[in-house]
Amino acid sequence: MGPVSGLVLFAVIWTIVFFIVLPLRLETQGEAGEIVPGTHASSPANFSFKRKAKVTTMFAFPIWLVIATVLLTGAVSIRDIDWFERMSTPEVSRD
């Protein structure tokens, strides 16, 4: 895995974790009792992107580290997850 592949993998993991973290500890304007005119009652009352991004990064980095380590060490290869045996067996050199 090259540096760009590692960065893309981190971006994908970070985005998935962000969508998981986004609704955690969400307080809506309806729950707070202060609905701003022109917004829905389900809009966030005090949204902090900086805090959500920090929490997301704290969870995404260890997940990325485990996945990158597994990929780089070769502990799991594509042949290990070939459940339907569609890949041919590798050619063995007879030299």
Secondary structure blueprint with pairings:
Blueprint: H1 3-21, H2 29-32, H3 49-73
Helix pairs in contact: 1-3
Please state the CA-atom Rg, rounded to the nearest Å: 22 Å
Q: What is the N-to-C succession of helices and strands?
A: HHH
Shape: elongated
Structural class: mainly alpha
What would you say this structure looks like, in words?
The structure is a single chain. It contains three helices and no strands. It has helices at 3-21, 29-32, 49-73. It is elongated.
Short description:
With 95 residues, the chain is mainly α. 51% of the residues lie in helices and 0% in strands. It has one domain (3-81).
Question: Which characteristics define this entry?
Answer:
mainly alpha, elongated
